[in-house]
Amino acid sequence: MLNNTIPVLDQSNTDACRSSSKGSTNGSSCAMKYEAFKVACSSCNLRELCLPVGLSQPQLSHLDSLVATRKTVKRGDALFHTGDAFRSVYAVRTGFFKTRISSEDGRDQVTGFQMAGELLGLDGISTDRHACDAIALEDSQVCVIPYAQLEDLSREFSDLQHQFHKIMSREIVRDHGVMLLLGSMRAEERLAAFLLNLTQRLHARGFSASALVLRMTREEIGSYLGLKLETVSRTFSKFQDEGLLEVKQRDIRITDEAGLRALVNSVRC
Amino acid sequence: MLNNTIPVLDQSNTDACRSSSKGSTNGSSCAMKYEAFKVACSSCNLRELCLPVGLSQPQLSHLDSLVATRKTVKRGDALFHTGDAFRSVYAVRTGFFKTRISSEDGRDQVTGFQMAGELLGLDGISTDRHACDAIALEDSQVCVIPYAQLEDLSREFSDLQHQFHKIMSREIVRDHGVMLLLGSMRAEERLAAFLLNLTQRLHARGFSASALVLRMTREEIGSYLGLKLETVSRTFSKFQDEGLLEVKQRDIRITDEAGLRALVNSVRC
DNA sequence: CGTTTGCTTGACAGCATTCAACGTTGGTGG
DNA sequence: CCACCAACGTTGAATGCTGTCAAGCAAACG
Questions:
Q1: pLDDT reported for residue B12
Q2: Are residues B136 and B196 in the same domain?
Q3: For a disulfide at B206, which of A158, A184, B14, B154, Cβ 3.0-4.6 Å?
Q4: Do B129 and B189 belong to one domain?
């Protein structure tokens, strides 16, 4: 339900540039390295997870000329804010983001967490202004995809057009899965589903399927899952007591994946 | 947050064919009538709410040839089911639908209610199979828009392409609003937001802004809002006691819209 | 006219929230 | 290098909102 069905990554050396789990390195050194390689979609090791999925080599080179600029966003900074003019969508290249919306009375809702290869900013198409804030949860870099040019190019290449539509549709399906989670699951089920979804996406990017470092706070997890931070913390502790996880602050090791999975798929006890 | 910002309908005789609130007429007589008028997008009185928004007359005639077939769906029947092959998107012409997803363990979540001019089936693009069930809540008729042809045509006309993207983006923004509702609002706030959203959309279609007939059961409202049907019922009663609404089963009259609006925008009491 | 489906209401229970205190970690500056 | 501070995380106790279970009523349908 929460699962993004993302094609498996071409594993050619994806570990080359990856921020350490200690968070001590900042993103810029990584960015420099990529720039040195003159990175383009056609040679990006994320291309099997990102917009270029399924494009031919000539199509890729057109896309390369479109995705000419990159942007570095420091941890805690916004890639865009609600109300900003919408000009581009963004592909996460390195790092990690959250998107959130705010109601007039100040309540926030985290609407998603985005990692490498995932697109940000699709909400902006509907009104020409962004409808959420996108905040970097660690030093990050994104590819800037000017939207007008993306529309132009996808009128030329039906493969690109179709892939873009698939990505938007996938976001809709994902959102519906989150609605199911928020509308009908209990705290334990929500957190279990969340962890399984995260590890599945990380695994598709070449990371371990059983160990992960959370890039977000308990409060951010809680906002996404419709829970208070105390409930998130308590549920982590409960999972640890039950032998499902090992929790050390933001370092999580899944010790009983089947147990987690059973939680998600079980009706009320 | 829940509000779809939909342009106001051109009011030329939109009341001509409208199923009675008693539900005693079936949709087919209505359908016949429309067929007699040889309905096309270019002459449809929903065109300012639907896919054709902003298209020129020549573009509209192209769209007319694409949207050649219509389909009648009886109350309770499905327009499509989860897993069905995806070939078309559908525009609601008359009637009312719900979409729902089911988890493996049998839990359902209503993900939306669709009325005239709104599109159904966008979820299917991502995997070439529909990802939800679309169920008619009253006898309904939809325009069938073959998706492959829609892609073809929107490569020719950037206006159509852009409008289609806007519609998908608007669905994403709407979903995020529902997440906010499910994640952070209490029962009263959820129901108030739901009613305001419904009346706003109905009003854009020429109906009263203060009276409405619910096409869905308390259970379906509850599923959409992440509440049990008893809670929905109790909250309706509470609103009535407080003088916000007059509730007679599915007939609702809003007697204090400002009061409802205040509920949605107020932080916790 | 009887049956089914949907709606309302009451009593009670349970899960998540709230409020509060304390512990941990990482960064900063003396 | 260490002390301090701020942000984050954990845990306990009590409250309350919503769910659960149950009964009765109303409306719709054949």
A1: 33
A2: no
A3: B14
A4: no
Domain assignment of residue B169, yes or no: no
Query: In this predicted model, what pLDDT tens digit does every residue of B164-179 receive, in sequence order?
Result: 999 999 999 999 999 9
Same-domain status, B256 and B139: no
Residue range A20-54, pLDDT digits in tens: 333 333 333 333 333 434 578 999 999 999 999 99
Taking the C-alpha atoms of residue B132 and residue B112, their distance in angstroms, rounded to an integer, is 10
Whether residue B11 is predicted with pLDDT greater than 80 in this model: the reply is: no
What local confidence, expressed as pLDDT, does residue A266 receive? 67
For B30-40, how does the pLDDT look when each residue is reduced to its tens digit (9 = 90+)? 333 334 345 78
Question: Does one domain contain both B54 and B95?
Answer: yes
What domain range is A146 assigned to? 27-157
B132 and B212 together in one domain: no
Q: Looking at the domain assignment, is residue B180 inside a domain?
A: no
A24 CB inside 7 Å of strand C:
yes
CB atoms A155 and B161 under 8 Å: yes
Q: Is residue B6 part of a domain?
A: no
B233 touches strand C (CB under 7 A): yes
Which residues of chain B make contact with A133, given a CB cutoff of 8 A? none
Beta carbons within 8 Å of A125's beta carbon, 6+ residues apart: A86, A147, B165, B166, B168, B169
Assess whether B36 and B90 both reside in one domain: yes
CB contact under 8 A, A131 and B176: yes
Of A152, A166, A175, the CB nearest to B179: A175
- Burial class for B206, CB neighbours closer than 10 Å (0-12, 13-18, 19+): middle
The two most distant CA atoms of chain B are separated, in Å, by 56
Asked which of B137, B157, B177 is the last residue of a domain, the reply is B157
**Tokens 């988890």, located at residue:** B103
Residue A260 lies in a domain: yes
Residues B139 and B215 in one domain: no
- The Cα–Cα gap between A16 and A37 comes to 12
Average pLDDT value for residue range A242-264:
95
The per-residue pLDDT for range B242-256, each reduced to its tens digit, is 999 999 989 999 999
Which residues on chain B are in Cβ contact (under 8 Å) with A2? none
B247 CB inside 7 Å of strand D: no
Min mean pLDDT across A19-28, A151-160, B50-59 is at A19-28
Number of domains in chain B: 2
Kindly list the distances between the CA atom of residue A128 and the CA atoms of B10, B52, B170, in Å, as whole numbers in the listed order.
Answer: 23, 18, 11
Task: Please answer whether residues A82 and A54 qualify as being in contact, where contact means their C-beta atoms are separated by less than 8 angstroms.
Answer: no
Residue B182 per-residue DSSP state: H
